[in-house]
Amino acid sequence: MSPVRRPFALLLEAGLARQERRLKWLALVLGVASTIAIVQDLDPWPMVFGLPFCLIWIGCAWLHGERQLKWINLLFTALYIYGLLRWGFADLP
């Protein structure tokens, strides 16, 4: 039995499929920018560039049903959000 698909999910999936190539190029640029930021020790920019990188790959993995890739990127997304929140609240009393 196949899962019930809602209209929003179908629209989202169609939009991802149409923009997949552009999203992957954007992910490549974000990955390179994140790597440069790591090498140059530019905190918090590696996390700022890495978060949308992971979100793009979650969408692409979801589109193609690659469960393992999706879960790995969900883990990294949670870690990036934690790191950004920790960095953002570091100066608070």
Strand segment tally: 0
Percentage of residues in helical conformation = over 70%
Please give the oligomerization state of what you see. Answer: single chain
How many structural domains in the coordinates? 1
Our Rg estimate from Cα atoms comes to 16 Å
Instruction: Report the average pLDDT across residues.
Output: 86
First-to-last CA distance: 54 Å
For the sheet with most strands, the description reads: none
If you had to describe this structure to a student in words, what would you say it looks like?
The protein is an all-alpha fold and 93 residues long. The protein has one domain. The protein contains 3 helices and no strands. It is globular, with a radius of gyration of 16 Å. The mean pLDDT is 86.
